[in-house]
């Protein structure tokens, strides 16, 4: 995990995420930003199973507070439609496979009735173990949102993990669904070694070879050195007959 401080909003997606909470408590958002910049956010992780981001935030004193941030729960059917749509769009799939988030992702989510990013702080469920209930989100929650945006700057595919699909699951879905296989590669079907290792050692079924043409050693001499072919012919004839006198193939 990268350090949970530093610049935020180097990408359109982290800017969109923070835009979504801009209507939250202004004083607390501002203090949260300072907390984040001072490195108060520790151990930020994204958990695709629990569809949430969790982190610890060190306050001015005592034990750090635990913060969790959840947004959308997406059912399996919708997920498969979303990933299909992204896979069918070669530009989008290319971007995602290169670790970028194409803007069309928002449209794809909208097509399935979902907002990729929150429109309001109230759309996000930010929980903190601190006692502050005076405004939403609390400064610890706000600090985690800034840290989360910074993490997304570096790897936007974590956004999918926040919504329930790991980066690996997304990339697998794109590679297996994309028309003609992974973009930029030849559409050649290759059986992974794990599925074909038995054939690898036994050879499997061999393709029948064409019958070899009869070999005539004398043809080499014919026409190039006069007399050699005719002189060697009786010797080759005897060799072919072998000691038993029968002619081989
Ligand atoms: Zn708090």
TrEMBL record:
Coiled-coil stretches noted in the UniProt entry, renumbered to this chain: none
Domain SWIM-type: 113-149
Pfam families, sorted: SWIM (PF04434)
Highest taxon above the source species: Bacteria
Keyword flag Lipoprotein: no
Keywords associated with the record: Metal-binding, Zinc, Zinc-finger
UniProt keyword Transmembrane, yes or no: no
UniProt-listed PANTHER family: SLR1429 PROTEIN
Protein name: SWIM zinc finger family protein
């Amino acid at each position: 995990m990268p350090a949970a401080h530093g610049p935020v909003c180097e990408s359109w997606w982290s800017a969109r995420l923070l835009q979504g909470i801009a209507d939250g408590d202004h004083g607390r958002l501002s203090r949260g930003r300072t907390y984040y910049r001072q490195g108060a956010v520790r151990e930020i992780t994204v958990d695709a199973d629990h569809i949430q981001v969790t982190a610890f935030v060190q306050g001015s004193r005592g034990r750090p507070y635990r913060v969790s941030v959840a947004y959308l729960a997406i059912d399996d059917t919708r997920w498969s439609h979303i990933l299909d749509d992204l896979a069918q769009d070669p530009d989008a799939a290319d971007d995602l496979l290169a670790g970028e988030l194409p803007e069309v992702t928002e449209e794809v989510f909208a097509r399935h009735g979902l907002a990729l990013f929150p429109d309001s702080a109230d759309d996000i469920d930010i929980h903190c173990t601190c006692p502050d209930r005076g405004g939403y989100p609390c400064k610890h929650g706000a600090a985690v949102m800034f840290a989360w945006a910074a993490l997304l700057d570096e790897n936007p595919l974590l956004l999918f993990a926040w919504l329930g699909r790991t980066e690996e699951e997304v990339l697998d879905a794109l590679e297996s669904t994309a028309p003609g296989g992974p973009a930029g590669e030849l559409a050649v079907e290759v059986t992974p070694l794990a599925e074909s290792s038995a054939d690898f050692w036994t050879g499997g079924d061999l393709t029948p070879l064409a019958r070899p043409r009869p070999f005539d050693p004398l043809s080499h001499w014919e026409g190039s050195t006069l007399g050699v072919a005719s002189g060697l012919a009786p010797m080759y004839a005897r060799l072919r007959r072998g000691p038993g006198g029968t002619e081989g193939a």
